[in-house]
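[audit] Reproducing an earlier prediction to check determinism. Same input, same settings, fresh worker. If the tokens differ from the archived copy the diff job will pick it up downstream; this log only records the rerun itself.
[audit] input (158 residues):
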Amino acid sequence: MFPWNSQFPFQQSKMPDYLKKMNPNEVENYVSQVMSQVFGNDLASSFPFPKQQEKQEEETASPEKRKKPVHEIFETNEHVFVKFDVDPETAKQMKIEHSSHRLFLQNYPEEGKSEYINLPSLVKRKGSKAVYREKVLELTLLKNEDNTLTEIGIIYSE
């Protein structure tokens, strides 16, 4: 059997002291600095994820102060449901469209802006409905079962 413990490079006993004392924020700052030197400031600010502090602030902020509107998506065997909070004035101004894989919301989260939501499954063109009740907009979309299979032949090479 292979002696995994002896080959693993990050065992606590062999780890240098400076790695034990390292702060995750320092690592993130270092990576951001290197990314900005390599790719420039525009790409480095969004690579690979938003900064942890910004992420935590957005999660704890009230719904009015969040950058992106919060929506809830869930699916059953036959439907995809999308729910989100909308005030009555915005609901009256909204225009909702969808493709087979994406939902487009115009004049949302406010007038003149638009938002799109990727759907977890393919949906049919017809049979969708939107119901607004108690400041919640619920969209129901019929799932489109994609039963077309294509066989891929295997080429054997020696």
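[audit] rerun output stored. Observation attached for the diff report: Residues 73 and 105 are 15 Å apart (CA to CA).
[audit] end
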